[in-house]
Amino acid sequence: MTTVTHALVYPIVVAIDGPAGSGKSSVSKAVARELGYGFLDTGAAYRALAWHAEASGVDTDDAASVIGCLESFDYRIGTDPAGYGVHVGETDVTTAIREPHISGIVSRVARVPEVRTHLIELFRAIMAAEARPGIVVEGRDITTVVAPDAPVRVLLTASEEVRMARRSAELADVPAEATAEQLRARDRADSKVVDFMTAADGVVTVDSTELDFDQTVDAVIAVIRGSQPVTG
Ligand SMILES: Nc1ncnc2c1ncn2[C@@H]1O[C@H](COP(=O)(O)OP(=O)(O)OP(=O)(O)O)[C@@H](O)[C@H]1O
Ligand SMILES: Nc1ccn([C@@H]2O[C@H](COP(=O)(O)O)[C@@H](O)[C@H]2O)c(=O)n1
């Protein structure tokens, strides 16, 4: 009889949600590197779809038109935490999707239920295909909708003031108040679609307000190690 261990069949999923600027992508990437896991940035797909809609001349305020461009949305993303390119067709959009303009419109496509259904299927397929022993998946609805059965589920938070300060330090050319207002507006819009401000049952909150980056990574790894045996 052949014995197959869980880790050989499915990658262990570490689900991480949180508001904008809470450190989800940078912390998740560092955690994945440390544990030898893959890393999936789900927000990149919503951003890339917003980019694709605009590149296709679609009005992102019109849900039917956004749904219409799902068919031509040829999206690819890697899961290597050391470097993952984001492509739409032949175009490398890794940098373009981080532009403040895309951050300003992405919630319009993310609120469309058909978009969410389409992308959630895509995320689950990427997770299932992960060859490493685990995958850290971050976004807004990973702990509740995409992978509610994940063995590790974390809500990563930080005070609004700290999140604004961290994000504005990255965008030195943009006035701090404009960055802060965009972050607040995005959280307001996104919160109408999914709840990522409060931890669902069984989800562990890691509040990084008083933690530096390395301490936050360690705190998430401690949650993972406390949840189940891990490789790495
Ligand atoms: N604990 C921490 N201490 C200091 N800086 C941090 C900490 N956590 C994250 N950062 C920094 O905060 C900034 C925002 O982090 P990151 O981009 O990972 O957030 P995010 O939640 O993925 O944001 P978004 O949802 O807007 O994409 C980055 O510059 C990151 O290095
Ligand atoms: N699971 C998710 C992830 C993201 N979104 C939407 O995408 C936007 C960009 O996400 P970032 O993590 O890159 O900031 C975000 O503002 C949401 O509109 C989502 O809906 N669900």
From TrEMBL:
<dbReference type="InterPro" id="IPR003136">
    <property type="entry name" value="Cytidylate_kin"/>
</dbReference>
<dbReference type="GO" id="GO:0036431">
    <property type="term" value="F:dCMP kinase activity"/>
</dbReference>
<dbReference type="Pfam" id="PF02224">
    <property type="entry name" value="Cytidylate_kin"/>
</dbReference>
<keyword id="KW-0963">Cytoplasm</keyword>
<protein>
    <recommendedName>
        <fullName>Cytidylate kinase</fullName>
        <ecNumber>2.7.4.25</ecNumber>
    </recommendedName>
</protein>
<dbReference type="GO" id="GO:0005737">
    <property type="term" value="C:cytoplasm"/>
</dbReference>
<dbReference type="GO" id="GO:0005524">
    <property type="term" value="F:ATP binding"/>
</dbReference>
<keyword id="KW-0808">Transferase</keyword>
<keyword id="KW-0547">Nucleotide-binding</keyword>
<comment type="similarity">
    <text>Belongs to the cytidylate kinase family. Type 1 subfamily.</text>
</comment>
<keyword id="KW-0067">ATP-binding</keyword>
<dbReference type="GO" id="GO:0036430">
    <property type="term" value="F:CMP kinase activity"/>
</dbReference>
<dbReference type="InterPro" id="IPR011994">
    <property type="entry name" value="Cytidylate_kinase_dom"/>
</dbReference>
<feature type="binding site">
    <location>
        <begin position="18"/>
        <end position="26"/>
    </location>
    <ligand>
        <name>ATP</name>
    </ligand>
</feature>
<keyword id="KW-0418">Kinase</keyword>
<dbReference type="GO" id="GO:0006220">
    <property type="term" value="P:pyrimidine nucleotide metabolic process"/>
</dbReference>
<feature type="domain" description="Cytidylate kinase">
    <location>
        <begin position="14"/>
        <end position="224"/>
    </location>
</feature>
<dbReference type="InterPro" id="IPR027417">
    <property type="entry name" value="P-loop_NTPase"/>
</dbReference>
